[in-house]
# Entry
Amino acid sequence: MNEKLFKIGQKLISTGKLSTTEYKYLIDNRNEEITELLKNEAVKKRKEIYGNTVFIRGLIEISNICKNDCLYCGIRASNKECERYRLTKEEILSCCDEGYSLGFRTFVMQGGEDLHFTDDLLVEIIGEIKKKYPDCAITLSLGERSYESYKKLYDAGADRYLLRHETADEEHYNKLHPFKMNYKTRMECLKNLKEIGFQTGCGFMVGSPHQTTENLAKDLKFIEEFSPQMCGIGPFIPHKATDFRDEPSGDVELTCFLLSIIRLIKPTILLPATTALGSAEQGGREKGILCGANVIMPNLSPHSVRKKYELYNNKLISGNESAQEIENLKNSMKNIGYEIITDRGDIKEK
Ligand code: SAM
# Structure
């Protein structure tokens, strides 16, 4: 084994911290041996904290209407081919009813930045879900909002907020987003969410256009320093109605390698094996779990809208991806030695 590589790997395992240059070296020089070593250590740490349990979240895609125009995203405002929809409060609540009876104890409301979902409306929806299901956690993933807005949603009972930083490099950020969107605003939002008290999640796409290993190293350093409670990473997958349609998809093996590293940076982190990972390769989600992930977010949206929430081509919407197929998902986790449990699935922070 390359001695320098091994030393850096050992440093990560024992301290959970590396310099950006060391992260880059690890990614650039990764080989089978270091991948195996980090994977085994990541799984060991994850098992010390979470055993072999896997947390599930019911994902409700509340709207594909978005004011933003992120260059990579299938529901970007300028995609005129996208058939738009938004769920009503009643539809969202009925997703929760179904999810609760299937064993979900976290509901994730995700959507484009749809101005219809005002603070008042969201506060009302959060309040009703919490009243009906006080034993459940609510995660929001609704993009950038003001400090005051986040605070109102938190005070209404929302527990967690996912906002991927997308890239921790400002120049790269600008290559993925329109001029109107701003790296500093994104970082400010993440800081605010954490300050308010949300269990906060950041994350990025692996293999997004223009991404370098230096960018990835910066992402890892950012995660180390920001210390989020959750982190969502998945491969970039092109969408036919975006300018990135001909770009290659992100690499599944690299995504799994990064999942192991993130687990080692923060052993308690809630780390999903994402839909994008499952969509990029059959069995991708299982691979993610075997590399240190401990969360899966099956789709609980009404069947009629699932195809319309198309962030990228060939997004999985059926099979184990569907909340209704939870028994199959339980079996496929059992086959690899893991167990899905009915639990809110909060972070076990010391
Ligand atoms: N609007 C909210 C936001 O921006 O945080 C939530 C919805 S947004 C569509 C959720 C995530 O999907 C983004 O953070 C992005 O990383 C991911 N995503 C979008 N387009 C993608 C693509 N082509 N491939 C993989 N992931 C993608």
About this structure: The two ends are 35 Å apart (CA to CA). The longest strand covers residues 199-206. The first helix runs from residue 3 to 15. The chain is about 45% helix and 10% strand.
